[in-house]
Amino acid sequence: MAMPTPFPAASSSRLPEGVSVQPRTFAFRDLESVPQHWFADNPILTHVENAFSIMIPPGERFFIRAVRHFEDRVSDPELRTLVKAFVQQEGLHMRAHNQFNQSLGRFGIDVKREIAAAERVMDSMQRRLPHKVQLGVTVFLEHVTAIGAHMLFTEPAVAESMHPEPARFWRWHAAEELEHKAVAFDVFRAVGGGYFLRIFSALAAVLLLTPPLVRIVRRMEKQDPRQVTDEMRRSARELNGKLWRPQLRMLAQYFKPGFHPWICDDEPHLKQWYASARETT
Ligand SMILES: [Fe+2]
Ligand SMILES: [Fe+2]
Fold first, then answer.
1. Cβ of 132: how many Cβ atoms within 10 Å?
2. Distance between CA 251 and CA 263 in Å, rounded?
């Protein structure tokens, strides 16, 4: 049985053959069964992923608003259809992450406080940054997300070391991120966004978002009574060791003037996920 699809798929000549932007509803099967350290039984890795999950709903709301602000200036009807599907996908991601984030409360994490902290950061960026920079920030963060998604599909050790429930959840999110990875970029270009604005916005995103993300991780560490052992540090380093080179390579591509998100061919990973999602959902 395929995953429920409340919205139509957006097809486009901008996408690889057989790939569309298809919003799907994700249903957790048994969120209560997810252990506290669901990522490789490792608090370091789990806290980092949990902190990303906390940042995701306000982050995606920011992306939706940034892209929608320019929607009327997009003349290509295909791109407008893709924007609609992008908004629907991000809306569904927000909903599922909210559900996941709420479930973290049972591990002693002060979920309300962390969500409020993440919302403050994103709201302040929305208030203070010019709209074009907000769109540029979105373009960059969509690329960062696409890097993470690409890693999830190309490095099997990542998903295999997760508890099956969050593994299925992150793979669903990752697949949809790959489907819509170029939408914000194409809107940015369609409304005259150039290279320097794109790079400036990327640097602004790194400077503004890294400190609050690190603070969330630190607070989660403090709230966790489990002792972090040398073995846990070693296994976290080992996993990062496998990922940092390809991640850095993909990040470097972003700084080339001719960059486009589909320079990285994620079509095979998407097709593989389409086949497996059909079997396992
Ligand atoms: Fe998303
Ligand atoms: Fe996205």
1. 20
2. 12
Quote the ligand 2 centre to 231 CA distance (angstroms): 34
Report CA(166)–ligand 2 centroid distance (Å): 18
For ligand 1, the distance from its centroid to the CA atom of residue 28, given in whole angstroms, is 16
**Please, are residues 266 and 143 in contact by the beta-carbon 8 Å criterion?**
no
Nearest to 137 by CA among 153, 149, 124: 124
The answer as to whether 137 is a domain residue is: yes
Q: Which residues surround ligand 2, an ion (CB under 5 A)?
A: 177
What predicted TM-score, i.e. pTM, was given to this entire model?
A: 0.95
Q: How many CB atoms lie within 10 A of CB 10?
A: 25
The alpha carbon of 225 and the centre of ligand 1 are apart by a number of angstroms equal to 31
Question: Ligand nearest 173 Cα, by number?
Answer: 1
Residues 57-109 have pLDDT tens digits of: 999 999 999 999 999 999 999 999 999 999 999 999 999 999 999 999 999 99
Q: Please tell me the distance between residue 227's alpha carbon and the centre of ligand 1 in angstroms.
A: 32
Task: Tell me how many domains the chain contains.
Answer: 1
Domain of residue 179, residue span? 39-259
| Cβ neighbours of 79 (radius 10 Å) | 21
* Any domain includes 204: yes
Cβ–Cβ < 8 Å for 165, 31: yes
Residue 279 forms part of a structural domain: no
- Burial of residue 75 (number of CB atoms within 10 Å: 0-12, 13-18, 19+): exposed
89 CA to centre of ligand 2 in angstroms: 8
Distance 143 CA to ligand 2 centre (A): 8
